[in-house]
Automatic annotation (TrEMBL):
CDD domains recorded: F-box_SF
Organism: Rhodotorula toruloides (Yeast)
Protein name: F-box domain-containing protein
Recorded superkingdom: Eukaryota
Biased composition (Basic residues): 43-58
Region entry Disordered, spans: 1-78
Length: 787
């Protein structure tokens, strides 16, 4: 027999409802009738063997002449008389919080809870262990049943051309489960808990009434599989044939995933595995008891899935004969199993019917519960707005009665939008009085400054010092509209505002854009440097060298080039072209040397990005790599052409070898100025050309492994991977929303790069991408109509 929940709390008769009494009053009130405690099933609180730390008292105090009864033990501790030589010990008293769960009796709490919505009552269980014990107790079970079932439905009839309420229909009771009543608190947890029971970190908006699970969108996408895939795919071929017949399925698909029309039910992968293991154990027991093999050994998951699909289609028909035929197919399939498996399957089928009844009840009650919750929220919003309006009115009346500031000031001053005023609590005491007065005084001070600042000069020979002195004299005069008490609040704020007004704002330093030139001179200079840049690229020995060369904006920030570009007299007139060309020729060797340094920096930064994402080298070792590392034969030109060395463009999601990315940047991201954004390029802090995140490296490695391609083979091309995959596509199984569909490998890598960069901006990382192959679509048979 189930025992009653016994709360460690005193009886209702001994409860004190006042908060200004001492702690000793609770002990005095604890001597109530013990029979009442037995009636309500509560235990008397045990007296502690250790009292609080004694509060010591110094001899010679003014309270020494009190009676000896004053030194009796109290709830706060003992008062001990010390010798003159002993020093008193400082004692800190703890402020106790008021817990209404321990003060109010259960009957009163249940009466209060009767006005709450079930979701609000469930949220109370998360406040503390005491509240959770109260809400889950058997004493609250009738209240839970009343709240979940809802109020009686009025029964109406049509009489005398009017619809009249004749009676109230009792709400439909909660269906039983396995012959027992459903625990109402567990049902409330299923309906109103917002935490995913799988990952325990994401929010759940609605529960799945078919699976009776609270799963977030991400967990549903990762764990739900269509039943057609279970029957046709090779992944689940090792399951027991009766697995699909016993697991619960849901018609609610994962979000944003396109499936064929035949995929109308989904099951959880974990349920498939658990049910299959249980069926295998039962099958082993039956095989051990009998020497002959059963018929189900000839069955497979695919054949069972086809039979169940056919039976489901027959039962959906409108004909009774077809429905009976569908039930007969399921019964015929069940008879093929071994005895223990058959018993287990029949038990699960009966449980599915009870699940369906409970799911229908949840579907009928869910909409009324949500409508009731919306109505309660709307009423609460209206009540809070009325309470705030009443609060503002009371504060305005309070300020007007004091008469410190004129009533006309309250209409325009921003005091009513202050956070202390906008609170819904009806507080009009003196706690917020100085805060509001400072807000109003600041408004008055700003008006005074505006009025004095708008005064025009009457004499032309007035200088700034005379105006400042006149303004100070005007500010020191109390206006007639402000009372003497109000001036005490306004004057300090005026002085503070005047102090800040005297400090002029320093103009922002303009961005250094080079020498100050006219538009014509700037065009001549840019044309000269653009021509020299093209000539320098033509001198390079190969086309590959042009891709490694800096872009025009990066070329201009080379130290020698920048020095010539910042010269206000160099290349600003076409008449001095020959002299400027001679000057350029003098610095040509230094310019080519700096362009070679740029190539080394590009290769070194790419090498660091590749090693950081594809090897286990520490960050310190990678940072210590210098230009000398490029002399290692392991990092020659063939290293950057391997499939394992492909990188992303730093400005977009293009993916390829280093040379291909550099060519892409010259064609699609030309840099015509050293100011690509708000930050100017410098030779000391160049921008990275390529990057490779860990997520992209993992996804790329998985794709190469699926295509059976050697990642360390040099001279790898994109067409090699396309030919290896053929007509197959790839899919990102554990990707974010909208990325789990089949797509080409290039689109998938771009999607991984895009979401990885977004996660890095949020100071987060993505899970290791799980990449799978998708077979090509089969041509569909014509359905008899045009799409």
């Amino acid at each position: 027999m189930a025992t009653r929940t016994r709360l460690p709390r005193q009886a209702a008769q001994s409860t004190s409802y006042t908060f200004d009494e001492s702690d000793g009053s609770a002990d005095a009130a604890g001597s109530g009738d013990e029979s009442s405690e037995e009636e309500y099933g509560r235990k008397r609180a045990k007296k502690g063997t250790r009292q609080g730390k004694p509060r010591k008292r110094v001899k010679g105090d003014a309270s020494d002449e009190e009676d000896e009864d004053d030194f009796a033990p109290r709830s706060g501790g003992l008062v001990v008389q010390l010798d003159d030589k002993e020093e008193p010990e400082m004692v800190e008293y703890e402020v106790k919080r008021v817990d209404f769960g321990e003060l109010l009796p259960l009957e009163t709490l249940r009466e209060i809870f009767g006005y709450l919505h079930p979701s609000t009552l469930y949220q109370l269980s998360g406040l503390s262990k005491t509240w959770r014990t109260i809400v889950k107790s058997d004493f609250m079970k009738p209240l839970w049943l009343d709240l979940l079932r809802g109020p009686p439905t009025p029964k109406t009839e049509f009489k005398d051309m009017k619809r009249v309420i004749v009676a109230d229909d009792d709400p439909e009771p909660i269906p039983t489960f396995n012959g027992d009543e459903v625990e109402p608190f567990r049902l409330a947890t299923l309906l109103f808990d917002k935490t995913c029971e799988n990952c325990e970190r994401n929010n759940v908006f609605t529960c799945d009434r078919y699976l009776f699970r609270r799963l977030c969108y991400e967990c549903r996408d990762l764990n739900l599989v269509p039943t057609t895939e279970v029957g046709k795919g090779k992944t689940y071929r090792d399951l027991h044939p009766a697995t699909l017949q016993v697991v619960a399925s849901t018609p609610l698909p994962p979000r944003d995933i396109c499936y064929a029309r035949s995929q109308r039910s989904w099951v959880l992968v974990g349920d498939l595995r658990d049910a299959s293991e249980m069926l295998e154990l039962l099958q082993l027991e039956d095989d051990a008891d009998s020497t002959s093999k059963y018929v189900e050994t000839a069955l497979s998951v695919k054949s069972v899935q086809k039979t169940l699909g056919r039976a489901k289609r027959l039962k959906r028909g409108w004909s009774a004969a077809r429905m009976e035929r569908g039930k007969a197919l399921e019964a015929e399939l069940t008879e093929k199993y071994s005895p223990r498996v058959k018993e287990f399957v029949l038990e699960k089928l009966a449980m599915k019917e009870e699940h369906a009844k409970l799911g229908d009840w949840i579907r009928m009650r869910w909409s009324p519960l949500i409508s009731m919750q919306d109505a309660i929220k709307a009423e609460g919003t209206v009540f809070d707005s009325r309470l705030q309006n009443a609060r503002v009115t009371a504060i305005r009346k309070h300020l007007s009665n004091e008469g410190i500031f004129p009533s006309s000031t309250f209409k325009h001053a921003p005091w009513s939008s202050h956070p202390l005023v906008q609170r819904a609590e009806p507080l009009t005491n003196g706690a917020i009085r100085p805060v509001l007065y400072r807000v109003i005084a600041r408004y008055v001070a700003l008006n005074i400054i505006a009025r004095c600042g708008s005064r025009k000069k009457t004499k032309k020979d007035d200088d700034d010092s005379d105006d400042e002195a006149a303004l100070k004299r005007d500010l020191l005069k109390k206006p007639k509209s402000v009372s003497a008490q109000g001036w005490k609040w306004v004057r300090p704020i005026l002085a503070e505002l005047l102090k800040h007004a005297k400090q002029p704002e320093k103009p922002a330093a303009p961005l250094q854009q080079g020498p100050v030139l006219t538009m014509e001179q700037r065009d001549v200079k840019n044309a000269f440097f653009r021509e020299r840049y093209e000539k320098a690229l033509d001198i390079l020995p190969s086309q590959k060298g042009r891709f490694y060369a800096p872009r025009f904006g990066e070329f201009l920030v080379c130290p020698t080039v920048q020095q010539l570009y910042d010269d206000a007299e160099f290349a600003v007139d076409e008449s001095t072209y020959d002299a400027d060309l001679a000057t350029w020729a003098e610095h040509l060797d230094a310019i080519f040397e700096e362009m070679g340094d740029h190539v080394l920096e590009v290769r070194l930064s790419a090498l660091k990005a590749i090693l950081a994402a594809t090897t286990e080298m520490s960050a310190e070792d990678i940072e210590d790599l210098g230009v000398d590392a490029l002399a290692d034969p392991a990092y020659d030109d063939s290293f950057f052409t391997r499939a394992s060395s492909w990188v992303n463009c730093a400005d977009c999601y293009k993916f390829g070898s280093l040379v291909e990315i550099l060519k892409h940047r010259h064609e699609f991201h030309p840099l015509s100025s050293p100011h690509p954004g708000s930050v100017k390029l410098t030779a000391d802090a160049p921008r990275s050309q390529v990057e490779l995140s860990l997520e992209v490296a993992c996804a790329w490695s998985a794709i190469l492994e699926l295509a059976n391609i050697d990642a360390d083979k040099p001279n790898f091309k994109a067409k090699n991977l396309t030919m290896a995959l053929g007509r197959q596509d790839v899919a990102w199984e554990n990707g974010p929303r909208g990325t789990k569909h089949r797509q080409t490998w290039s689109n998938l890598i771009e999607a991984v790069c895009r979401h990885a960069r977004a996660a890095h901006r949020r100071q987060d990382v993505l899970a290791v991408p799980v990449i799978v192959l998708r077979k090509p679509y089969k041509p569909r048979r014509g359905r008899g109509w045009w799409w």
